[in-house]
Structure formats: structure tokens, C-alpha cells
Write a structure and sequence with these properties.
The chain is of the alpha+beta class. The protein is built from 4 helices and 6 strands; from the N terminus they run E-E-E-H-H-H-E-E-H-E. A hairpin with a 5-residue loop joins strand 1 and strand 2. Helix 2 packs antiparallel against helix 4. It catalyses: (8S)-3',8-cyclo-7,8-dihydroguanosine 5'-triphosphate = cyclic pyranopterin phosphate + diphosphate.
Length: 171
Amino acid sequence: MAMSEDGREDEYGGAEELTHTTDEGDVQMVDVGNKPDSERRAVAAGEIRLQPSTIEAIGESEIGKGDVLATARVGAIQAVKHTWETIPMCHQIPITNVDTEFDLRDDRIELEVGVETTGKTGCEMEALEGVTTGLNVVWDMVKAVEKDADGQYPETGIENVRVLEKEKQER
């Protein structure tokens, strides 16, 4: 592994090297063929701001479209499994596990998605896709009650999407 200027290890050859472009500037997929398989895990999180009345309706299963969190969980898992189809240079990786955890707060729902794989490349993009899609599904399920009189969403927003952790264990 190479070391970046700040002393961190960088498995793709250095922090300053763009691995998805050739020397000529053409876009390419990173060749991970010679890398050993390792057990990997990534956890991402994000939140959707909602009106307190919407949070209450979700908690009491009073949303007309159905079970918001169950539907969002399915959407998050599906997104994890299909990340390689939506992120152009992402490898198709074998997903071995997906965990989703929702936390209903007074004015928002927080979602954490953990993804596990055994392979040659990490799974943080899959975790991020799970979070963003899961939160988008929540929005879709509650948009009728979130809209104001003008059909806008002044109190609704998806925020703070980030990778919380990334782990790699050599086999």
C-alpha cells in the first residue's frame, strides 16, 4: 500500500492519484483483479427532517401508503444490491449482509445502513446508496402529508449523509 502525504495508507496508490482516469484523462474502472479478497464492512448514515405530526403518524402506522419503515428498509436493501448499476465506475460486489436501523426522533428519522462483503474492494458506496434510497423512500411515502398548501416541502429535507466507518480484515 502506498502512503498519502498525510501519512494515511491508500490502497489505490496515493491520495493525489485519480484512479478512475487514465494518464490521458479517459474514465476507467479501477482494476482490482490482483488484490486479495478481504472481509469488509461499511456503515453510512443520514437523516430526513419531517414535521413532528408526520413522525407521529409513521410511529402509529397511520400513513395511507402503508408501513413506511418496512418499505424504506426494502428500498435500502435493494439499492445496496444494485449500486453497481447506478454508480458508473463501481464494481459489482457480493453483498453478504445488510443491516438497517431507523431511529425516530421528534423532527427527523435517522437511518444507518451497514453493508458487509468479502471481496477485492470496499462497500462504502453501497452503504451510502442504501441510506439515500431508504430516505428517499420515506419521503415518497409521506409526501402527501408533508406538502404545504402550495404543494411545497418547506420542512422536509434529507441531510447529513456520510460514511461512519469502513473496516477491512485480510483473510
